[in-house]
Amino acid sequence: TLNRINPKLNTKNKLNKCSHQDLYSLIWTIYALAKTIYPSTVNDLIASFHLLISSFFFYL
After folding, report:
1. Rounded to the nearest 10 degrees, what angle do helices 45-59 and 20-37 cross at?
2. pTM, to two decimals
3. Upper half-sphere CA count for residue 29 (Cβ side, 13 Å)
């Protein structure tokens, strides 16, 4: 009965979807920020790669 009065109660909240470009920009921004916080990873390729992957998982 309450749903007939206010039909918005039946709708599920939809997540706002971002474009691939927005996701790419966000991950690279997090990565660049983390590289400035941890400057020791500049010359270490493996640590830089792990930092990039962790930036991606931070978003998820």
Report:
1. 130
2. 0.51
3. 7
- Spatial distance between the Cα atoms of 29 and 13, rounded to a whole number of angstroms: 28
Query: 37 in helix, strand or coil?
Result: helix
Residue with tokens 């309450």: 2
Give residue limits of the domains in the chain. Answer: 18-59
Average pLDDT, the chain: 72
For 4, the token pair is 């007939």
The three-point CA angle 13-14-19 to 5° equals 155
3-state secondary structure of 13: coil
| Contact between residue 38 and residue 51 where contact means Cβ atoms under 8 Å apart | yes
